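// run 5 | inverse folding | seed 20
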C-alpha cells in the first residue's frame, strides 16, 4: 500500500509540474488566463489513465467505480510517504479486513485512514 501511495505521489507531482509548464507556455502564447491551454485536456487524460493503471487490481471495484482524483498539487496528498516521517497503525476489524491509519505532521498532526480487504484472495484497498 505504501508503494502505491508513493507512486500516486510521484504522479500527482509530475502532473502539477507539467501543468505549470503549460501555464507558462499559455502566457507566452498570449492565451488569456481564464482559458485552458490546448493541451490541458490531454494532460488530464494522461493523469486519469495513469492513475487507473496504478490502482487497477489494487483497489476494490467499488473504489474504481467512485472514480480517480481529479486534483493534483505540490506537495501532493500523500507526500509524507516520501519523507518517511510518519507512523502507521494497523487495526484488524474482521478476519479479512484491517484499517490502516497513517499519522503525519503538517501544520497540525494529520492522518489518513485506509481499509484493506481480502478480495478474491488478494489484498485490496
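// decoded
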Amino acid at each position: 500500500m505504501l508503494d502505491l501511495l508513493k507512486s500516486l505521489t510521484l504522479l500527482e507531482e509530475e502532473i502539477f509540474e507539467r501543468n505549470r509548464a503549460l501555464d507558462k507556455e499559455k502566457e507566452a502564447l498570449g492565451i488569456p488566463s481564464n482559458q485552458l491551454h490546448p493541451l490541458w485536456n490531454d494532460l488530464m487524460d494522461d493523469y486519469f489513465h495513469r492513475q487507473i493503471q496504478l490502482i487497477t487490481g489494487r483497489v476494490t471495484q467499488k473504489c474504481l467505480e467512485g472514480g480517480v482524483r481529479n486534483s493534483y498539487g505540490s506537495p501532493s496528498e500523500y507526500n509524507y510517504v516520501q519523507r518517511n516521517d510518519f507512523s502507521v497503525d494497523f487495526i484488524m476489524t474482521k478476519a479479512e479486513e484491517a484499517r490502516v491509519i497513517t499519522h503525519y505532521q503538517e501544520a497540525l498532526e494529520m492522518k489518513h485512514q485506509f481499509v484493506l480487504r481480502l478480495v478474491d484472495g488478494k489484498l485490496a484497498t
